[in-house]
Amino acid sequence: MKRFKSCNCIEHEVVLDYKNVVRHCSNHNLNFGGRPIIYDYFDGNNLTKEEFFKRKWIHRKLFREGHSLSNCENCIHLSEKEWGDDNYIDFILLTPWSECNSKCIYCPVSTDEYIKKHTKKYDVYSVIKYMAENDFFIPETIFDFAGGEPTL
Ligand code: SF4
Ligand code: SF4
């Protein structure tokens, strides 16, 4: 198997972010941006496994060919090893900046009107259910909740 530089986020992670963006990661790569995008706009409808992994592979292929993404340059999460070609998600972050009943005093989620105005809410549960029923996940997959309470 060939060794090349890639990142687990590019290979096997997904972030359902605010403003209806779907990303490979939510990591800020300080000099180059980070947070590369899988879908510019996702409203919860018409998700298919084929289309999702086709989009993941646009960037997975780049790394296999020895390239990178400009916003991933020099990121500490890049690692050179023998990456496999299987399609699965081992980490999913739900961070829609929706309402949150905790309302922690330091958190801008409940008060950021700009993000709320530019985020169309959708049924996250149906998306996760589709993913689960269509074998996106493995037994070790981590589900992370942040930036609001996505199940409200
Ligand atoms: S290399 Fe860094 S910025 Fe790029 S997807 Fe991985 S964690 Fe995110
Ligand atoms: S999103 Fe997290 S930090 Fe913000 S109010 Fe909810 S629990 Fe607190």
Short note summarizing the structure:
This protein is of the alpha/beta class.
Can you describe what's shown?
With 152 residues, this protein is an alpha/beta fold. The chain has one domain. 24% of the residues lie in helices and 21% in strands. The strands form two sheets. A five-stranded mixed beta sheet has the order 4-3-2-6-7. The chain has a two-stranded antiparallel ribbon with strand order 1-5. The N and C termini lie far apart (44 Å). One iron/sulfur cluster is lined by residues 100, 102-104, 107, 109, 147-148.
Hetero ligands: iron/sulfur cluster
Strand count? 7
Number of helices: 4
Q: In percent, how helical is the residue content?
A: 10-25%
Structural class: alpha/beta
| Shape summary | globular
Query: How confident is the prediction overall: mean pLDDT?
Result: 92
| CA-CA gap between termini | 44 Å
Question: What spatial order of strands do you see in the largest sheet?
Answer: 4-3-2-6-7
The fraction of residues in strands falls at 15-25%
Count up the domains. Answer: 1
CA-based gyration radius? 16 Å
Low-confidence stretches: none
